[in-house]
Design goal:
heterodimer; A: Uridine Diphospho-n-acetylenolpyruvylglucosamine Reductase, domain 3; Enolase-like, domain 1; 11 helices; B: 746 residues; Aldehyde Oxidoreductase, domain 4; 3 domains; 24% strand; binds flavin-adenine dinucleotide
Chain lengths: 287, 746
């Protein structure tokens, strides 16, 4: 196994593009190291990115924030601007692991690890965040929702890697929230999860919404039907029920040791409804 | 045995809370655990494990592994002699499979190599040809006549004819006329329950370092609850004499009963003997789950009759336990413990053990009792619900007390169940208001406790300090408690005493640290060894003063003339006597060795409040109080620690922990991510109330406290959930999917 710390993004892209064996990138390493130790993966090339310029900074951009790929959960949680603008995204990231894990774990690693149960991803999808990708052919931007391809897989091409996440500006009276269900309160993996981002008008009517679900399909998924169920409503009881039903209907989970299909499907709807109510409260609305 | 204190004795050291002697080492990382030992030229060994639940081993070819550069030895079952004694042979076959693999993860071969990478690469070169056999992992399925047979010819003669060969033993306990008892009942409830196998979940995986030279002498360092037990098993399995093998117990990162046997130690010794080099084995967490002892899994039917005013008229339980792929006697303890908390005229318990393709059961705190008492206490609670009776009053009405003929035979002496129930009744927890979706559960629990073979040496050093050598690994703070009892008896300060755990060559035999026996038995031996040293010190003082030995007494850490007639001499302290000991006859030491009896049974009562989220099935534990009779609490913090720890492990067992098997008979969750023990944020503070009903069998009244606390939580949680949601679950764990399903079936 070779371990390389490239000097530039271009060098990293070249290294990764030319490697014929198994590659892994280290942002925080909290997935990679554990997978290597347990024998799940034996990479030929490990590329460490976290020291590269800009990869650990959070910069205001167009009313939103550009967040370097190696920014840890702890660093993100201490950033007042991001916390105020996208509290739901931050709470998803901060659910990852423990205090120790937070010191290292990143949103980008969480996304690129490709777990359907990744805690940072539903919030990013609901936020309509994009990632900036560097590769052998230069740089491109892509919506977060289009990155996951299946358990452990992404749509990133050969030699491509993520350099930053962009969280956009948002209108007034907007809010977001993320909830997951785990049998334990900590150190657990989501059995079902939901993120909701929404905007209300002065009368408290939802004018825009995005609903994303985790751990109930091969990838984190955006559920437009669930969003449609609440747009134009004040999230009254009927809208809440419609939201939960639409979220449950979209589920395509597996039956395994962590939860039954029936359980995941029902709970995803419950979480979507509860997350929507929190998002609404954060947007300053009332149901 | 006469109780010295009969309630009057004023203790100076016993009952206080000095800092634990091993605390600094443990928090600074200086403490040496099983994996911390290394030796020059040491090899590292890894173990090849079965990927099948049940298969015949057609052949094993280790030649390619042996030929790999860096591999120094490979062993399989063929390197060991089968044992005539079935108990020993089962341990051996569990360490390395002989003709069949009996469960997923069963060890098949082991390789010692110059590095872990080489050892792991060598495992891949071992060719094992398997012929897969049908498997069974469920205890009820295993008892059906057409079940796949895990092992043939293992049934004891107690097993009734016509049952599956998997049924290895049968037991029966009880007394009185059941039919007449049930006839007197106003309400009879009969229910069936299951509990999943759970693991002890100790944080430290098994680890050992073995050396065995060409001269046949061996040394073994390992994390164990009993180095003498390891020595006798390993000496037998390797065909050497006990005197030639010295076993040293490391510090131990939890055991809870699971480290009372061997898994890797004989393998490491065999590899060392074959290679001529020290060999270290450290299990991974998944190996710990796959191949070390979980509890039994159980299936139990309980039938209880009660009068309208809450008197139990008869109780009956049928218990079916599986201790995995080997015969297991744990069901006997379940059958004895099931109704122990009750004073009954008619009671009967029947038990069966069945073989399944699961790892060999190992003890886990109060083995067999939590499962049985869960079933009984659930039915008692349901009777209370249906008859509209207060569950605490009903327990008080039926509680076993001094003079009760217990459901398993003996008549109880002084026991603390009534006092414990009264304390629970009087506690503010019992009457605190509950909110919506909240429920309060109550359960009593019981454990026998044990004494056993024990041996202690107490050395009086010339500088006036004292060294105690005892032979039981310290799992719950026993070194502190032992030092406290010695300080109490000798009349010197606690910090003048250091207690160490000896290796097998330094002290006579000591039974394993189990059965909640150490503070009781080793404590008792320590008190006696101190008294032995005291009599020697009195004799030295008598010699110095030129008076009769009988005219000297020991008071406040000093020898004194017994009265005015004995002569007028100023007291001689322990330090003063020790300082001149070389001139008065040589070193001074006290000894005591015995097979301790009179451990004294222990009862506990747990109260728990839960809140259930009806939309997700999640259960939150809101409040928890443990009431337990500890006899005399020598170090109350450790007693509380045992009570809290047992409650926490029981909460995990009740709510989330379980061995989950797939259709293929393989374990689905051999890791802490999917085998969910509670984390700190899952728990409220566990409140404790210690009752001190002296055990007549110990001079200070000490009873074992370590096992009883894991017994009540299963039923307490189940009763609380049942009251919170208005539906009773009959299977553990009550994981969120199970609760949500029960709610949706309403
Ligand atoms: C104790 C513990 C608890 C955990 N709890 C949770 C939890 O509650 N919820 C949860 O979702 N996860 C959890 N995790 C998993 C893990 O911490 C998260 O997925 C984390 O966000 C991964 O981020 P990282 O930066 O450490 O990733 P890394 O380990 O650095 O990388 C993860 C993957 O992403 C790839 N990658 C990394 N950086 C890039 C990049 N810039 N471009 C392209 N690919 C990249 C790597 O090749 C690798 O495949 C836990 C892990 C541990 C050890």
């Amino acid at each position: 196994m070779r371990f390389v710390r490239p000097e530039t993004l271009e060098e990293a892209a070249t290294l990764l593009g030319q490697e014929s064996g198994v590659t892994r990138i280290i942002s925080g390493g909290t997935d990679v190291m554990v997978q290597m130790r347990s024998g799940l993966v034996a990479p030929d090339l490990v590329v460490d990115l976290k020291h590269l310029t800009g990869l650990r900074s959070i910069t205001p951009e167009a009313g939103g924030f550009r967040i370097g790929a190696a920014v840890s959960g702890a660093q993100l949680g201490e950033h007042e601007g991001v916390c105020a603008l996208w509290p739901g995204v931050v709470e998803g990231v901060q659910l990852i692991g423990s205090t120790q894990v937070q010191g290292r774990a990143t949103m980008v690693g969480n996304l690129c690890n490709g777990s359907p149960a990744a805690d940072a991803v539903p919030g990013l999808v609901a936020a309509d965040a994009t990632v900036r990708i560097m590769g052998p052919n230069g740089s491109r931007d892509c919506p977060v929702a289009e990155i996951p391809a299946g358990p452990g897989r992404t749509t990133l091409g050969k030699g491509e890697f993520v350099t930053s996440v962009f969280l956009p500006a948002r209108p007034e009276r907007s809010g977001d929230a993320y909830l997951r269900f785990t049998p334990r309160t900590e150190m657990d993996i989501a059995v079902a999860a939901a993120a909701v981002s929404l905007t209300v008008d002065a009368k408290g009517v939802v004018t825009a919404a995005r609903v994303a679900l985790g751990a109930v399909a091969p990838t984190v998924m955006l559920v437009p039907e669930a969003a449609a169920a609440i747009i134009g409503t004040t999230l009254d009881d009927a809208a809440q029920a419609a939201l939960a039903a639409a979220a449950s209907a979209a589920c395509n989970p597996i039956d395994d040791k962590r939860g039954t299909i029936e359980f995941r499907t029902r709970v995803a709807g419950v979480l979507a409804r509860r997350a929507a109510l929190i998002a609404l409260a954060r947007a300053g609305g009332q149901n | 045995m006469a109780l010295d204190n009969t309630g009057q004795r004023v203790f100076k050291v016993v009952g206080t809370r000095p800092p634990r002697p091993d605390g600094v080492d443990k928090v600074t990382g200086r403490a040496l655990y099983g994996a911390d030992m290394s030796a020059p030229g040491m090899l590292v060994a890894h173990i090849l494990r079965s990927p099948h639940a049940h298969a015949e081993i057609v052949s094993i070819d280790t030649s390619a592994a042996e030929a790999l550069q860096g591999v120094k030895a490979v062993v399989t079952a063929a390197d060991f002699t089968p044992q005539e004694d079935e108990y020993l042979d089962d341990i051996l076959v569990n360490c390395l499979a002989r003709d069949k693999v009996l469960y997923d993860g069963h060890a098949v071969a082991a390789v010692a190599a110059t590095s872990a990478d080489v050892a792991k690469a060598a495992l891949k070169l071992i060719k094992v040809e398997y012929r897969k056999l049908p498997h069974v992992t469920d205890v009820d399925a295993a008892m059906r006549p057409d079940a796949p047979i895990v092992q043939s010819g293992r049934s004891l003669e107690t097993v009734p004819e016509g049952m599956s060969e998997n049924v290895t033993s049968h037991c029966e306990f009880g007394h009185g006329d059941l039919e007449a008892g049930f006839a007197k009942a106003d309400l009879i409830i009969e229910r069936s329950f299951t509990t999943a196998a759970t693991h002890q979940g100790y944080i430290e995986p098994h680890a050992c370092l073995a050396t065995m030279g060409a001269d046949g002498k061996g040394d073994l360092w390992c994390c164990t609850q009993g180095q003498y037990n390891v020595r006798s098993i390993c000496a037998d399995l390797l065909g050497i004499e006990a005197s030639q093998l010295r076993v040293t117990a490391s510090e131990i990162g939890g055991g809870f009963g699971g480290k009372t046997t061997v898994f890797i130690e004989p393998v490491a010794l065999a590899l060392s003997r074959k290679s001529g080099r020290p060999v270290k084995i450290v299990m991974s967490r998944s190996e710990v789950f796959l191949a070390t002892g979980p509890t039994v899994s159980s299936s139990t039917d309980v039938k209880i009759g009660m009068t309208k005013d809450g008197r139990i008229t008869a109780g009956q339980a049928h218990l079916r336990y599986s201790g995995g792929a080997f015969p297991c006697g744990t069901v006997d303890m379940g059958a004895q413990a099931a109704f122990a908390a009750y004073d009954l005229e008619a009671v009967q318990t029947l038990g069966w053990n069945a073989l399944t393709n699961r790892p060999k059961e190992a003890a886990y705190r109060a083995p067999g009792a939590p499962q049985a008492i869960y079933a009984v206490e659930s039915v008692v609670d349901e009777l209370c619900q249906q008859l509209g009776l207060d569950p605490l009053e009903v327990r008080l009405k039926n509680a076993a007390r001094k003079g009760t003929k217990s459901s398993y035979g003996p008549t109880f002496d002084d026991i603390g169940l009534m006092a414990t129930l009264e304390a629970a009744k009087a506690h503010p927890h019992y009457s605190a208001p509950l909110g919506e979706n909240q429920g309060r559960g109550l359960s009593a629990g019981f454990w026998f406790n044990f004494g056993g073979n024990t041996c202690v040496t107490l050395n009086v050093n010339t500088d006036g300090t004292v060294g105690i050598t005892e032979g039981n690994p310290d799992i719950g703070g026993s070194r502190a408690a032992i030092s406290q009892m010695a300080a109490e008896e000798l009349g010197i300060p606690y910090d003048k005493i250091r207690t160490i755990v000896a290796d097998t060559s330094s002290l006579g035999h000591n039974d394993v640290t189990d059965g909640s026996r150490v503070t009781f038995s080793v404590g008792l031996a320590t008190i006696k060894a101190a008294r032995d040293a005291i009599s020697k010190m009195c004799s030295r003082a008598a010699q110095i003063w030129g008076i009769d030995e009988e005219a000297v007494v020991w008071e406040d850490g000093a020898a004194c003339p017994a009265g005015p007639n004995a002569g007028k001499f100023p007291p001689m302290t322990l330090a003063e006597i020790a300082a001149v000991s070389f001139n008065t006859g040589g070193p001074i030491a006290g000894h005591y060795e015995f097979n301790a009896d009179g451990a004294g049974v222990s009862f506990g009562v747990h109260l728990v409040d839960v809140e259930v989220d009806r939309e997700t099935g999640g259960t939150k534990v809101l409040r928890y109080t443990v009431f337990q009779d500890a006899g005399k609490a020598v170090h109350p913090s450790y007693v509380e620690g045992q009570m809290q720890g047992g409650a926490v492990q029981g909460i995990g067992w009740a709510l989330n922990e379980e061995y989950i098997y797939g259709e293929d008979g393989r374990l689905q969750n051999p890791g802490f991510l999917d085998y969910r023990i509670p984390v700190a944020s899952d728990l409220p503070k566990i409140d404790t109330v210690i009752l001190e009903i002296p055990n007549p069998g110990h001079p200070y009244g000490v009873r074992g406290v370590g096992e009883t606390p894991i017994v009540p939580p299963l039923a307490a949680l189940s009763n609380a959930v049942s009251r919170a949601i208005g539906k009773r679950l009959h299977s553990l764990p009550m994981s969120p999917p199970r609760i949500l399903k029960a709610l949706s079936e309403a």
